[in-house]
Amino acid sequence: xxxxxxxxxxxxxxxxxxxxxxxxxxxxxxxxxxxxxxxxxxxxxxxxxxxxxxxxxxxxxxxxxxxxxxxxxxxxxxxxxxxxxxxxxxxxxxxxxxxxxxxxxxxxxxxxxxxxxxxxxxxxxxxxxxxxxxxxxxxxxxxxxxxxxxxxxxxxxxxxxxxxxxxxxxxxxxxxxxxxxxxxxxxxxxxxxxxxxxxxxxxxxxxxxxxxxxxxxxxxxxxxxxxxxxxxxxxxxxxxxxxxxxxxxxxxxxxxxxxxxxxxxxxxxxxxxxxxxxxxxxxxxxxxxxxxxxxxxxxxxxxxxxxxxxxxxxxxxxxxxxxxxxxxxxxxxxxxxxxxxxxxxxxxxxxxxxxxxxxxxxxxxxxxxxxxxxxxxxxxxxxxxxxxxxxxxxxxxxxxxxxxxxxxxxxxxxxxxxxxxxxxxxxxxxxxxxxxxxxxxxxxxxxxxxxxxxxxxxxxxxxxxxxxxxxxxxxxxxxxxxxxxxxxxxxxxxxxxxxxxxxxxxxxxxxxxxxxxxxxxxxxxxxxxxxxxxxxxxxxxxxxxxxxxxxxxxxxxxxxxxxxx
Length: 565
Ligand code: GLC
Fold this sequence. Notes:
Helix 5 runs parallel beside helix 6 (about 240-250), helix 10 (about 350-365) packs parallel to helix 15 and helix 11 (about 395-405) packs antiparallel against helix 12. By secondary structure, the chain is an alpha/beta fold. About 30% of the residues lie in helices and about 15% in strands. Strands 9-8-7-3-2-1-11-10 form an eight-stranded parallel β-sheet. Strands 12-13-14-18-16 form a five-stranded antiparallel β-sheet. Strands 4-6-5 form a three-stranded antiparallel β-sheet, with no helix packed on it. The protein binds alpha-D-glucopyranose (GLC).
């Protein structure tokens, strides 16, 4: 059995290139992380997750790795890394690495060797395929199948030197590794053991449910977009459970106190039960996407407003589905998502209230919460102008495909990218009100959000009413109140479009959480309000407790009562 220390833990994600720059080159680095560890320890988080720091051509900001066992000089050195790991451990924080093994960089020696000739011993470490039957290789439409890549354009790149194509579900600089090949799997396992032997405490596994592909790589469904959707052939593919269990046996078995979390776009609750059932020995928890896709309509280039009842149905389903077996991860933000206070809250007049409300509603669910850098101070989306303001390969690639190939109006595409684009999460962490938010003394690789004089960590730490201290309180509550960790979950008011409410119950303790997802007062029609008359108000993000269960704009409250079983 896996030990479950992580059920009461909170994880903090660091995106190193945007966290803190110690040497003035405009790019965050490991020494910058070391300098700010007390901010994280003060928040009370238990685990740090480092987005990739490995040598990389940085085509996808390090998610294209050219050496799995070193540190990119941009970020420092292996000895800086060891120092960071020791300094985190000294403060009682664990550290997990990002494991990106669905693909490597095209500059990884494995791929360089693989592409060198048809007879290379590493040829079948990647997915090399000839042109479609009867088509001239390298001509439009001659790709082995119709799949599009996540970042726009086809999922195949023609390699004139050997006359074949290689598969890349992401950019052409991110060729997919062939997990069918046992040599690939054992090389990955060896690399993972090397990091664990160095002292790291686990892995966040990038798009790990993409690694098993349906043999034959059949054409994907045609949707009206420029390319087919091949996801049915690579999401949760036929050998995925076998591969993850093998990884468990080869890498994790017999090692204590690790945390493994698989990033799994498109995963269903039923699949997640299998992935996270401890008896099956695969991963501890998964990142599902339903709640961050809840505001995505059928047309990707039309913004859709969130319906709160949809969000509640999603969380309700996941809470129920993993109540007896498996475990949830809980997140609003990461380096791929826009800032939640701008997305599901109000980043104007109610920024602080809505950021706190969103934090409370998320953290009190059953599962392990993840905080993304800047979320703990209520950082907001960036005011992007034109496409030239974006750096993200996804934004640029999707824009090119949508505008040039699919005929969408540039302004429509920009509207969606401004609201949802990944660069919103990637602007520099806002430390103080000095130039560039105290992130760098040089020129930051992406400009700081102009709101930094108001929204920054130094100011938040000094203000007892800040989002930072609210998050600190939520984390402390998880550490001290077992009902937060282990309690049963019951969704209340499933049809209410403005209030999010639920209870958690463990033995004789019951918690009630209510959040107002709107800027107007709203009354909670609780099933048994009298039961809560003498309950303790544990947290409240506004000056007044609700009167007669009317919550103010973006108000969040957490009550606790003792019940006789
Ligand atoms: C994951 C990462 C994302 C990256 C992609 C390809 O979704 O979170 O940032 O672009 O995988 O590695």
